[in-house]
Amino acid sequence: MIKEGELYFPTKEFQKKAWVKNAKIYKEAEKDPVKFWENLAAQLFWFEKWEKPFVHQPPYFQWFVNGKINITSNIFEKNLQGWENIKNKAALIWEPEPIEQSVKILTYEELFKKVCCLANGLKKLGVKKGDRVGIYLPMISEAIISILACARIGVVHAVVFSAFSSAALKARLVTNEAKILITADGYYRRGQIVNLKQNADEGIKETKIEKVIVVKRAENEINWNSEKDVWYEDLIRNESEQCEAKIMDSEDLLFLLATSGSTGSPKQVMHTCGGYTIQTYWTGKWIFDFHKNDIFWCTSDPGWVTGHTYTIYSPLLNGITTLMFEGAPDWPEPDRWAQIIEKHKITIFYTAPTAIRMFEKYGADVIKKYKFATLRLLGSVGEPIDESAWLWYFREVGKERCPIVDTWWQTETGGILITSLPGIGPFKPAFTGLPFPGVKIDILENNLVILPPFSPGMFRGIYKNPQKYLETYWSQTKKNVYFTSDVAHKNEQGLIRIIGRVDDVIKVAGHRLTTGELEAAINLHSEIIESAAIGIPDEIKGEAPVVFVVYRGEKTHDEIKKEVIAQIKKEIGPIALPKEIYIIKDLPKTRSGKIMRRILKKLLVKEELGDLSTLRNPEIVEEIRKIIKL
Ligand code: PRX
């Protein structure tokens, strides 16, 4: 990499091979973004071309109207690389968590056959275009097969992160009214077997689920309900390895994905077929500079949007090899991730700042022996990356050779919308970079907003909740400006730096959680009066929740804390566990009864409190301060 002041640029060698190397592309795209995306769309396979590229009826918009497409046709038989060129190539390398188990490799043709078998099996169970299928699977190949099988036949996939609790699963299934759930007996996590089927059994109670397809993974003991449960292997055993792709309208639903783990009413964002396919293909190609021999490792679980778009759809649309690792990157040794990069000759590595900070904390000795000679590009996602983690990643993993793309996006945007392009740069630690060509971004009073024509792969609404869509994203400014809820600023070169969220979202290890859902989970405890959750900076996880719990009963603080932990695990899952729990008698409130979370945050980060005269109970502030000091 070439360094100029605080900026880095790709080497001439990297640039020579990069798909995009001339900054003129930004100007060209800006002249007519709709035309720009239209030209990109035209390169993929459509059963029928669209009539209108973009239609805007604020706050709704559509792309490639009346075009007919199927994302799996673009992955398999109509892949732009040519089916004959890719069918015998590895589509997926799967690395199991237990070291002693074997790696599984699926070629494009093998994957295609498995997708078709399951698609046929699903049809036999009676699912039709537009129906929703829940997918509650760990990081195993069947997660990819299930997602693609749904897409093949026009069924809407609704994936639920496998570490979410049964209550969180249920809340999603209730809203999306799925009739089928695909799950597994269990899975490995840090050497333990998690009984996933047990959670699934609990989660489908009082939902519309009629059949549960069970993948055999960990061979643990499970309960079996012969009326509902069917083994995955039995379902596909006699199915044909061919299944016609359903011809989908560009604006038909492709998938639903919730933005939070809330047990109340999780918002499930809607992504559609045409625009998502186009954006997913091109953002991957240009941002990760996918070339035919690349082996890409995106560490995200398919339960998150990054897993959907960049572990699965984008590399496969580009005809390259994607790697999926079942376990935690530091298990059983802190350098497991480094071993995987070397063993599988990973060329592009994409992970979250939390993982980078964790690798850094293990110390340089742990990875001294690795040269990472195959790596040529690195990526970061999910939360702001601070300068020191950026530099460590750059030096110790990229060996000062690999550009780092710090990619900003959201579940709602469906794909990356801000980052420097690797063949152009510049790369500046802690800055994401420039908007992707054809995307108009602005910063209004520090708020990051997206302007029309938005992007083809952005979500089209919240499932069954148009009011929430309007309120959350379109009512802050004008109805034709998308409000991201991120605070950002721009430097002289126009590079964007993301500061953080303005709403109640906290990014815990890159995972999205709202303080509201955490409080709602805790408040379900019958003896707890109320609670307040606050996100505070954390050295490794970026942010971590701290909760204040109002309890006036007889139990000891330790007992209540244990119950709070159990309650959160039950309602959301272990990712939402707080860093600290404080049991208090009251929360600071205004005279109208509003909880002053701002004051709690200031107490935690030891900032000046300012004027407390608006409080109804200022005396509680001192009491809380004493407890925090303990
Ligand atoms: O605050 C931003 C942060 O993650 C939020 C979106 O979270 P989620 O929907 O879970 O999607 C995460 C994966 C795309 C954003 O509003 N965020 C995401 N990427 C970055 C980021 N913050 C800073 N830098 C990033 N590169």
Automatic annotation (TrEMBL):
GO molecular function terms here? Answer: acetate-CoA ligase activity; AMP binding; ATP binding
Top-level class of the enzyme under EC nomenclature: ligase
Acetyl-coenzyme A synthetase N-terminal domain segment(s)? 24-74
What Gene3D superfamilies would the database entry show? Answer: 3.30.300.30, N-terminal domain of ligase-like (3.40.50.12780)
Q: Name one Pfam family in it.
A: ACAS_N
Cite the AMP-dependent synthetase/ligase domain residue spans from the record: 87-457
Q: What is its EC number?
A: 6.2.1.1
Superkingdom per UniProt: Bacteria
GO BP annotations listed: acetyl-CoA biosynthetic process from acetate
Q: Which residues form the AMP-binding enzyme C-terminal domain?
A: 517-594
| Alphabetized InterPro entries for the sequence | Ac_CoA_lig, ACAS_N, AMP-bd_C, AMP-bd_C_sf, AMP-binding_CS, AMP-dep_synth/lig_dom, ANL_N_sf
Sorted UniProt keywords: Acetylation, ATP-binding, Ligase, Nucleotide-binding
The record's annotation in PANTHER family points to:
ACETYL-COENZYME A SYNTHETASE, ACETYL-COENZYME A SYNTHETASE 1
Report the family membership.
Answer: Belongs to the ATP-dependent AMP-binding enzyme family.
NCBIfam families named in the record: Ac_CoA_lig_AcsA (TIGR02188), PRK00174.1 (NF001208)
User: What protein name applies here?
Assistant: Acetate--CoA ligase
